[in-house]
Putative K(+)-stimulated pyrophosphate-energized sodium pump
Amino acid sequence: MDQQFVLYAIPVSGVLALLYAFMKASWISRQDVGTETMATIAGHIADGALAFLKREYKVLIIFVISVAILLGFANSNRPETSPIIAVSFIVGALCSALAGFFGMRVATKANVRTTNAARTGLADALNIAFSGGLVMGLSVVGLGVLGLSTLFIIYSNMFTDVAEVINLISGFSLGASSIALFARVGGGIYTKAADVGADLAGKVYEGIPEDDPRNPATIADNVGDNVGDVAGMGADLFESYVGSIIGTMVLGAAFVPAFNSMGVSPVAAVMLPLIIAAVGIIVSIVGSFFVKVKEGGNPQHGLNMGEFGASFIMAGLSYVIIDYFLPASWTAEGFTYTSLNVFYAVLIGLASGVLIGLITEYYCSTDNKPVIEIARQSITGAATNIIAGLGTGMMSTGLPIIVLSIAIVASYHFAGLYGIAIAALGMLSVTGIQLAVDAYGPISDNAGGIAEMAALPPEVRERTDKLDAVGNTTAAIGKGFAIGSAALTALALFAAFRQQAHIETLDISKPIIMAGLFIGAMLPFVFSALAMGAVGRAAGDMIREVGRQFNEIPGLREGTATAEFSHCVDISTKAAIREMVLPGMLGVLVPVVVGFTSKEMLGGLLAGVTSSGVLMAIFQSNAGGAWDNAKKRIEGKIEFDGVVYGKGSDTHKAAVVGDTVGDPLKDTSGPSLNILMKLIAVVALVIAPLL
Amino acid sequence: MDQQFVLYAIPVSGVLALLYAFMKASWISRQDVGTETMATIAGHIADGALAFLKREYKVLIIFVISVAILLGFANSNRPETSPIIAVSFIVGALCSALAGFFGMRVATKANVRTTNAARTGLADALNIAFSGGLVMGLSVVGLGVLGLSTLFIIYSNMFTDVAEVINLISGFSLGASSIALFARVGGGIYTKAADVGADLAGKVYEGIPEDDPRNPATIADNVGDNVGDVAGMGADLFESYVGSIIGTMVLGAAFVPAFNSMGVSPVAAVMLPLIIAAVGIIVSIVGSFFVKVKEGGNPQHGLNMGEFGASFIMAGLSYVIIDYFLPASWTAEGFTYTSLNVFYAVLIGLASGVLIGLITEYYCSTDNKPVIEIARQSITGAATNIIAGLGTGMMSTGLPIIVLSIAIVASYHFAGLYGIAIAALGMLSVTGIQLAVDAYGPISDNAGGIAEMAALPPEVRERTDKLDAVGNTTAAIGKGFAIGSAALTALALFAAFRQQAHIETLDISKPIIMAGLFIGAMLPFVFSALAMGAVGRAAGDMIREVGRQFNEIPGLREGTATAEFSHCVDISTKAAIREMVLPGMLGVLVPVVVGFTSKEMLGGLLAGVTSSGVLMAIFQSNAGGAWDNAKKRIEGKIEFDGVVYGKGSDTHKAAVVGDTVGDPLKDTSGPSLNILMKLIAVVALVIAPLL
């Protein structure tokens, strides 16, 4: 195949993804929004979400411009670096922001249309909700591939050294990571401040129902689903996707001399990750056609078909691609690679992602022992519920870490550090459809909220709940991929950093590296504390505002007056913007300060933040998920020793405490850690030539 | 000074400590126990504690013998190892068990006598409680120094190679560590099962008061204070103490050739830690004379005088010792040492211990912002209380880790890895008096419990509460020393392991080491989960037993019948013994399995378990401490926005949930992690020659 043809086909696949996403978005817009009340409510949600994004981006623009100027300056007076890296940074930030914007706009259209479709049946509702998710998924992969490949083509024409080109491109990843961290943290604070605030207001002030259209915080709560779970998650996966592609490219650059000497096109050495990603886009689109449900059927089946079908096809195609573009065997830096072994590494990535997902599901699913045990411990009150949940979260780190460790060792065995990087890429190759399934969850959730607020008949809510529930298993798998790929990507970036910073060995028993390890391991704890504190403070503001409205607005309690939703939206927005700055800056500044103190210490820090970050992420996500489902399990009635416990019982109240504690853990601090560890690794990689 | 004289003076100081402890113990025995009721209650507590220890030691004997046989076999057929290491192991286990036994026996005598003394005044009560603690403290340091130095003298006469001698002695540390882990975990499960069980029984079954002599679990609760906080803590510090001495000796052995070539006595190279420890014993005894309080005075002053006075004297004496025994300057393995720099490392250890203690106190004290904030978050319920406490615990890891990192880098700067080891030793040199202050807390606590059960006038309880409360600051400092020294000791043992296992570099970016790092970092999470789960299950058993007694024993509810205390004691005992096995074995087996897979992976595992262990220990201890004090703060009435919250309010109830959640974190899993990381390092060190 012609090298130039391949080079230019890649951005075309990105454009294709965006075109298809645009088509889907237009189709969604053309669907009926339902009653006037529904339209009004959905309008409030969409406006709130847009208002938040606008304010968030306003703050981020200042950050992006400042960092870009710093990057430009820092790289201007050294022969081996170029200020053009600032351009990559801006483009990366822009693509990430755009992906979040597109996804969220469409999600806030799809939610009400899903509700409306659910008034008549399940099949159309699934179609709309999934299409909404697909727009997000394809925007992410489309902008990722388009942005990266375009920059690569332009820089390749400007610079002859591939290593130089790739170093410049790493700025793209830095841009994506910084936006992702702020979006995840800000969105996470927003959504949980609203959620926790709305829930607790009912407790603090008597007579205010928790999940009721009269509660002024409900709109903010629904906005939160969109800015946190859709836009935040989109930015998160954009970052993983881009990070794993660049990590693999950096390591692949080491193959260029070997490929040149063998007369093989050296483009494949660095472009393979982009080629796989481009093919993954097409596979994701194909997979999306499998997602269908017949009226009365189980939507789970369709989603599984889509996600697993796509993964399966991708595994096969990966073999074809690797076999075609890579030579059968080559040697670089003392390691002998074979194309078959590289393919094995991809398979290891896919398999370990699925395994971690299944383990996650075991610990969080309503049908398994851990969640049932938490439910049982709720009988003796909130304290034992919390102890059981914390214990479950901590215990759930065991198996995933063993799987991850085996994946690291095995993929390295097959293809060295390149193997680790490409294993991460293997996990993420079908991000397009994975993200569609992930984003479909909050859209269905929102659809349910709208059904309730618009006082639609209960069967509508039942249908949207069914859609929401079946997304959980697939979402658990998605979470496994997210955590697994984050860890592997961070390791790949870590290896790339070591290469770029010319560090020979990172002997962990050296005190300076040990100190770095300790500080790195500490960051996820302090970062989580900041995020949780932010949620607590913002939820407090929200509770007071709800109380004020119920006291001051005549008729609100009786349901004859409308709540001032916008005030609550405003509180969440302001709090999220204010509180995202400190943890966000932590992720950017600490590696810079430590790196300029000692580059070896920075190496230790990367090891520490990755190991402790993965653990804290798994612990927090799974504890939160298990608490959530223990509460749901009790709501569905559960029997212990002949006594049945259900909604409204003291046992249920204890379980609600656990659920509320888990909220910021699983939706704010936990998922942010995935980004934190990658961001720190990317910052290290970008500043490596300066150290 | 004559080398032989020094060598034999060391065990004499150990004997001295034991004699003085014996004298104090006899003095305590001669004090009046008070009324017959008091004697009966105290008898129950003492019997329960003894029964637990007997059963625990029965299980441990099997473990010790099995490991000793394995150790003997494994070391029998290699020229460079000797089966005699099994003897060291048994002696170490025995000394640890004896120290725990002595301390606990005296504590269960001192408690009731403290109560009785408190009937008439404060001064005598302080004297008895502190003397009880001092017996524990001196037993620990006396047996540690006596055991180690005796083995050293015997082995030195059998083997000429110092490295060989020290390797054999490391078995002593392994014995101490294994007993410590089981004692800490078992004791921790015992005490918290009883405590949580007694507290929650009041919630689950109506009409059963929480802290009432009629509650059948109260005796078990008081037994728990002794087996967990006295015997468990004693074994813990015995281990730290012995571990840091041996870690320093192993590293000091590298100086022997240099000292020989300079004509300096090589004994000092390895014996310095023991000399410092021996002097520390005398200093601790001297310091104990400062602990006095005048009637109506503040006991805090006396404790401070004792602990800080001893530390201050020790700092000065360390200079004299180091200056006397070490040459002014020498070079070993490419590093140039000076005696002054070694002294600086000791000072760094002392200073960082105090700093970490002060930071701990900041986060946990009732007067500071973090605890007040947790109290404030309790207004909106248990969920926000828990979120705030988790956040505080996580945030509190930040500064201690920075202090620790600076201590690592600075002490290494001054005196290499030896500097890190001797910094840990510096922290622990006055363990005798530190432990006395620590153990004085649970004795006063028990004294208060007895006062309540014996229905003594309220001023007695007030006096014992006053004693208990003032121990808190000093105990916080002690906790700082425990965590700081555990981390430094683990690092010193880690370095010693690397040396003994002949590992050139431990490059953390190598996948096998990275996998070890991940698995190591995961262990504290899984270990904590096991410990917390054990407490939860055992507390559940306790709650059911309390309910059974209230239902089946006529007159118990009315206070006319006596509860079957012994059943509750039995439940806690059985549960603790049963549940300590799995987490205990985890600490012993994982390093063996990983080590025989790959010694480099074991190196990574040590780095992982140390970094994540320190963090989880700080997080759990401080979260638990802060929750506890937030509850106490509310009990002492606190005002927010013009509203006063006190005991019995909903805010208080929310704070009680936090306190209960914190119990197993701060008293079971958290402190066990200190031991876990050292135990794993010691196991690694012991098996190093076999790898």
In short: Chain B has a mean pLDDT of 88. Chain B touches chain A through 79 residues (CB under 8 Å). The first strand of chain B starts at residue 329 and ends at 332.
